[in-house]
Amino acid sequence: MRVRSRFAGLLLAGLLTPLLALASSHREAPAISFDPAADNTDLWAWIKPGTHDRLYVVAAYNPLEEPSGGPNFQKFSDDVLYEVHVVRGVSSLEDVITYQIRFRTEPLTRVDVADLTKGPGGGKEFFAQLSGAVGFQRQTYTVTKVQGRQSTVIARDVPVAPPNAGPRTFATLKALGLLNTNASAYNDDFTQEFVRPMGSGGGEGTVFAGPRDDGFYVDLGGIFDLANLRAKGIAQDGVAGYNCHAIAFDIPVTKVTVDGHLPSARTNDTIIGVWASASRRKITIQRHNGQSDAIGPWVQVSRLGLPLINEAVIGLQDKDRFNRTTPVTDVANFGAYFLNPIIVRDAEAVGIYAALGVDPAPFKTNRTDILDIISLKQNGYTVAAIGDVLRVDLTVDSGFPNGRVIYGGTNQEDDVTDVLLSVLLTKSPSGISDGVDHNDATYLTRSPWLAKPWSGFDQGHGKPTP
Amino acid sequence: MRKWVGWSGALAVVLAVAGCSKDQNPSPAPPQQGDGTVKSVASMVSGGASFRVPFDAALSPDGKTAYFTALVDEGAALFKVPAAGGTAAKLADLVSPGPLDVTSDGQTVVVADPGVESDTGALGALVSVSTSGGTPSVLGGTEGTMPRGVAISGGRIVFTGSDPADGSPGVFETSVGGGVTTLFKTGILEPSAVAIGTTGEVYVLDAESDGARTQHVVKIVSGAASEVMTGLRVGFPAGLAVAENGANLLVSSTDPNTGKARLERFSVSGMAAGNPFTGTVGSFDEPAGLHRAAKSDSYAYVDSGASGAGTVFVVNPQ
Asked: pLDDT tens across A127-142, in order?
């Protein structure tokens, strides 16, 4: 195609991508930007290469966590219902399995401040690290698997990994007996102590929840200074050095297939869809005594399937509404955004297409190609139920948009920014390169996949002062 | 009455309503019904300068006057409006009121207000207000019950909330004379709307027990509960009413496929049996309270977002 061929040039790649490469779903909508603990930032889902017998899912929340953000370091919210949804087949976007994760923080023990005989611990402390019976005020969680109308608790009272405040915290808590660990530091061995089995004998897989390195990479500063573009090598990874809070699942694939067996060949049932969400109670009442009460049914306030959909596809006027709805209604509610991607017109508005002498008209409307790509038409599926879910073909190795992969042992994940922006702007799955091409930490080769959280002591964003 | 403070609305209790992000429908037409079961649904009053985000509404026994709770600039309040439509008049300031119902003599409105706080730390109570307006009073014994739903039949005032002794959710009963008894607690997780049947049975909508995204209704008779409908998607307050013949329940809910509000009718003998009414209620998507008039076959129904700032409707079945 004439126009398409002109987009293969490196010049266009260098200009377009930094303009439009956004944070996967960090603070992407007005309402959720005020509620970081419930803000889905990224979702990865892929199957184990070669054997295809494990499904890995990492759902991240809480964008741009500053590692040194004490004394009350970021955490999961006890008032939020976190969910990972699995749909199956080509004709339905209804959940076949839902993993619900609820957190609970151990209440602080009130201590008489005037009683000088009391040792470290309880609610009197300045340092949050000293406030709980096991160091940091302990937070645990329960995982409930919902299948049909059957709800089963598959993990109960699992400890959340603590924040990585710094080496003095780790050593002190361990010395005081407030941190029960065999690890010598906040390292990967320590992380593995928080990877716990689900179901009897681990038959439902494993789960981890806690702070991790934010595994996304993008030049936030350049983009949001009204596309103040910077070339590769100068562009900055705006997510570098920040943490997130992640929930990581390692699930036997047999737990998500229609018949409980590994698929031997592709059928309409061997494609699944994964999406994650966060919900809060309808009503919150703030009390004078410092507490709050949340009542009423759950209301979804954030969701994420494919990266960048709400961020780059949905217009500002509908972003909050998108977060309140489910993939089932995406075509009815938001189909026009997919068929007429506003990001093309924004690129035109800032003069990108004109500068390159490219007519953007072919990319503005009737974009059924976008729907074909996200629904894995190239994988041979004919998907009738289209919505913002991350599709995963259970019969072949994953690779975006067939899943979204973290490549353990490297600093590479599927560069979803490149793929989606190439698709949106040029009708091609490739050709546009991001100015930031790798993560600032090496991903793990096992759950929770994301690197250990940056240390508050010496890896935060503070700078020495004169 | 026990000592209670903060009725002037000066309590800095904040009522935060999630889920109000929505289309700004420009003055939509009155909701249309699909199958003739409901004769008409007409707007009584819509939010604007005097109130916004109405939560629940109930009719006087003769069905001629509606009472409803809603937000105002400085908090929340109780209003009344002619069922035939007209201007809303404020009866009393409240803290964070939700569900309400009218006593059988038509003289008193009982409001579930989970936001009130006593100087003893008790959270939430049922409060009563004269239908001619005036200072709210706490129904004795209901302090600390965090009420979330209320229904009145004869002298019975049945409400959902929490047991002040241990915080556990449940279904309770009181009267205008005060005193509280527990009707049911086992298995109730997040009780919301409540309705009283023609033979004294109690229907309770639990916003949690059917899973996180759907709700169910249980029928309570002599301390035993049985599930009568599942898979509902309701708002807050949920709307649940017993039809006058006692055979059916009306529920205000949302269509899972469109997200739009609708009224559903179910047989009290089991879920979805004889469910002829599945039409949507206009293009609204914040369904809230629903109550039947004590002596008139008509209902007050609220959509908290209809027409932008919410609308109180009157529903007239055949």
From this structure: 988 888 676 778 999 9
- A81 CB neighbours in chain B (<8 A) are 212
Distance of CA B220 to the CA centre of its chain: 18
List CB contacts of A18: < 8 A, sequence separation 6 or more. A219, A222, A223, A227, A229, A230, A235, A434, A435
Taking an 8 Å cut-off on Cβ atoms, the answer to whether A288 and B215 are in contact is no
Q: Do B238 and A297 touch (CB under 8 A)?
A: yes
Specify the DSSP element, H or E, that contains A357.
none
Cα separation, B295 vs B62, in Å, equals 6
C-alpha span between B60 and B108 (Å, rounded): 9
Structure tokens at A101: 């994760």
Task: For residue B135, count CB atoms less than 10 angstroms from its CB and return exposed for 0-12, middle for 13-18, buried for 19 or more.
Answer: exposed
B235 contacts in A (CB within 8 Å)?
282, 297
State which amino acid sits at residue A391.
R
What is the sign of the dihedral through the CA atoms of A185, A186, A189 and A190?
Answer: positive
Q: For chain B, say whether A297 makes contact (Cβ under 8 Å).
A: yes
Q: What is the pLDDT of residue B33?
A: 27
Chain A residues closer than 8 Å to B22 by CB = 321
Q: Is the dihedral of CA B207, B212, B218, B222 positive or negative?
A: negative
- ipTM confidence: 0.72
**How far is B267 from B287, CA to CA, in rounded Å?**
20
Of B114, B121, B234, the CB nearest to A293: B114
- Dihedral sign (CA A341, A342, A343, A345): positive
Partner residue facing A332 (CB), from B114, B215, B258: B258
**Minimal CA–CA distance to B47: which of B26, B67, B24, B72?**
B72
d(CA A117, CA B254): 58
Element (H, E) at B263: strand B261-267
Give DSSP secondary structure letters for A402-464: BSB-EETTTTEE--HHHHHHHHHHHSSSSS---S--S-SSPPPSSTT-SPPPPPTTTSSS---
Residues of chain A with Cβ-Cβ distance to B236 below 8 Å are: 282-283, 295-297
- The model's pLDDT over B62-102, given as tens digits with 9 standing for 90+, comes to 999 999 999 998 889 999 999 999 999 999 999 989 999 99
Q: What are phi and psi of A232, to 5 degrees?
A: -60, 135
Cβ–Cβ contact A308 with B under 8 A: no
Closest partner residue to A285 among B15, B212, B235, by Cβ? B15
Q: Which residues in chain B have Cβ-Cβ distances shorter than 8 Å to A149?
A: 210-211, 230
Q: How far A93 CA sits from the closest chain B CA (Å)?
A: 11
Distance, CA of B195 to CA of B205 (rounded, Å): 9
Tell me how far apart the alpha carbons of residues A213 and A453 are, in angstroms, rounded to a whole number.
Answer: 5
What confidence score (pLDDT) does residue B283 get? 66
CB atoms B19 and A286 under 8 Å = no
Count CB atoms within 10 A of the CB of residue A450: 29
